[in-house]
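Posting here for the record, re: pyridoxal-5'-phosphate.
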Amino acid sequence: MKSNSQLAIHGGPKTVPDGLKKSWPEITPEDKAAVLAVLERKVLSGVHAPEAVGLEAEWAAYTGSKYVLSFNSGTAAIHSALFALKIGPGDEVITSAFSFSGSFHPILEQNAIPIFVDIDERTYNIDVAQVEAKITDRTKALLPVHIHGLPADMDELLALGKKYGIPVVEDACQAHGATYHGKKAGTIGAMGCFSLNVTKNFSGGEGGFLNTDDEALAERAKMIRTFGERVGKEKEKIRPYYSHTIGWNYRTQELPAAFARSQLKRLDKYNQIAQRNAVYLTRELADVPGILPPYVPPDRTSIYHKYRVRFDPSVWNLRASPVEIRNAFVAALEAEGVAATLWHVTPLTSFPIFETLEGYGKGCPWSCPFYGKEIRYNKSDYPRAQHLLDTSFVINDEANPIYIQDVELMGHYVAAIRKVVSRIDEIL
Ligand SMILES: Cc1ncc(COP(=O)(O)O)c(C=O)c1O
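Prediction output follows.
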């Protein structure tokens, strides 16, 4: 099924016309007015400041959570959740081998040990069938990640948590507004954490949230946000500045909070665009030889923070490794004008830190006497995550994500993929 035109990498015409891609984030006159109003008000920071408080209330209303705390990043929110659970030296936290650094750093920051589990290759999320074997008497939390905006298998994870008395904290940093059995991601476990980093479907530039229905957890998480201080509901006339425990400075600021409040009004719209485009891509790519569109189980919705497509190299019969094929395929797509990207080429467990075990120094937290166990992170222990990343790519890049594009652009992307696949033996 060869098409007439040469591949763009070999001098043929580009499939995707210039000027169709919309850049992210979308910034409207309303966004600008919201930010300007902060400058005019001259209140730029503070946990009781109006934009931070307003943003928390609006996110609580959107998600249906009783308590929401705003943070200056998703990583800070996850750290605060683990702190609230009193996770510390000698403890283990189980998470997915395929995620972003922000999932495991908070575990190390609490002096605890990340234990990784390989993924389910269809959903790209933690493989729940492998979790139980990793639970020990040290396990103090399960930290599933709703990767690319698709909720993990929460029922099974909650059942395991119940069986062993372990709380589940959701890393919902990529999943604002995704649902699982009709419930919003990030509101299902004991706590849920979100990122407002600029790449996300819901952006504040930077920022984060911790959601929970548990008042005691919310109160404790609040302490880490401001130097271990006990911060009340209202601003005190005289702040005592007493640190009751170790804490950080994890507050958000008024400018990003105001921007986020304005963006939140359009989150549903962006998620709907992402879903429309993803449904279109999945339908159109289903019959392209060797291409495997992402799978969404029927009991949940994805917000497609990233639309990751797998390929089956055996169908193409090329004399090259999957990684060589992947790189050549993405280069060919980029030449055709597709915003294609990889976003991570290895599981977290292949990051140098898990070889050097360079943490707080002197081997901590791994060599901490409270742990007293030796742990090795073998790269070969997470074959499905590695295989996924060797044989997949993401349609969209962070500057031009699918949650803002017209379906017309998706049509050109499909044409480009079909063209490259029809001349697949020419890409290498
Ligand atoms: C899955 C995941 N976890 C954690 C984080 C950390 O969020 P942040 O970058 O806001 O610290 C991110 C985002 O970047 C993420 O994608």
